[in-house]
Amino acid sequence: MDKDTTDYWVPALQRGLSVLGMFNARTRTLSINEIATRLGVSTSACYRILFTLTEMGYLNKLTSHYELGSRVISDGFSYLASRDIVEVAMPHLNALRDRTSLSCHLSIREQTDSLYLYRAFAAQRLSVNIPIGTRITCHCTAMGRILLSGLDDSELSQLYQSVRLDGYPAPAPRTLPELLAMIAADRQQAWVLHRSDYSTSVATGIRDHSGQIIAAINLSGPDAVMDSPGTQQLMIAEVLASGAAISRELGFSNEA
């Protein structure tokens, strides 16, 4: 490594990633002394690294050992799955954008957030375009509510058992019973229309071969465009058709 390169080197980050790289199929758990020895640092310095990784969910602390945490696994699988979803959904969302002249987005759920993976940009003055990588609380958006509808009431209650809901503006639910009732209606309808900040979004779910909702897509536009009941019905039909086409390519069949 030359001097110019070392100027940009972040030792703490390197050590943290090195710790994660120590675990594999053969090495599932390690003690703090084993990790410190492999890193070439003191146990006190190693403890700070392990504490940070544990707090972030990348490691689990057992009685005297550490193992990889669920976040490493869930983030890894989410990434691998999301690549396939984006590749399949991209041409459908681009075509949907071209037919409607409205912005289209694709998202997946990570805990209580909707993570935006793709957008088909509508090049008009009054466009709604959410950048890729944006995270928005699920129960406050059309796509997020669709993603939550893939959970049953028990899973939904467990997910939100420690989440305060009373700090969000209407029409977001303010209590867990309100959230359960709203998502139950969304689940039955299979699409969500949500208005916020002078814009309207219509969303539906993407299902995998097992029928599970693994992603959501939407059409977003200004209220001036979306306010007409006739226009809303047309956009709902367009979103549902695109969602069904993407789901079919992912192996879903709604035939009994």
Protein structure class: alpha+beta
Overall CATH class of the largest domain: Alpha Beta
| Quaternary organization | single chain
Please provide the ordered H/E string of secondary-structure elements. HHEHHEEHEEEHHHEEEHH
Task: Give the N-terminus to C-terminus distance in angstroms.
Answer: 61 Å
Q: What is the name of the CATH architecture of the largest domain?
A: 2-Layer Sandwich
What's the helical proportion of residues?
40-55%
CATH topology call of the largest domain: Beta-Lactamase
Strand content: 15-25%
Q: How would you summarize the topology of this molecule?
A:
Blueprint: H1 3-6, H2 11-21, E1 30-31, H3 32-39, H4 43-55, E2 59-61, E3 65-68, H5 70-100, E4 103-110, E5 113-120, E6 135-137, H6 142-148, H7 153-159, H8 176-189, E7 191-196, E8 199-207, E9 213-222, H9 223-226, H10 229-249
Antiparallel strand pairs: 1-3, 2-3, 4-5, 4-9, 5-6, 7-8, 8-9
Helix pairs in contact: 3-4, 5-10
Structure, explained:
The strands form 2 sheets. This protein has a 6-stranded antiparallel sheet with strand order 6-5-4-9-8-7, with helices on both faces. The chain has a 3-stranded antiparallel sheet with strand order 1-3-2. It contains 10 helices and 9 strands. Helix 3 crosses helix 4 (43-55) and helix 5 (70-100) packs across helix 10 (229-249). It has helices at residues 3-6, 11-21, 32-39, 43-55, 70-100, 142-148, 153-159, 176-189, 223-226, 229-249; strands at 30-31, 59-61, 65-68, 103-110, 113-120, 135-137, 191-196, 199-207, 213-222. The protein has 256 residues and is α+β, with helices and mostly antiparallel strands. The model has no long low-confidence stretch (mean pLDDT 87).
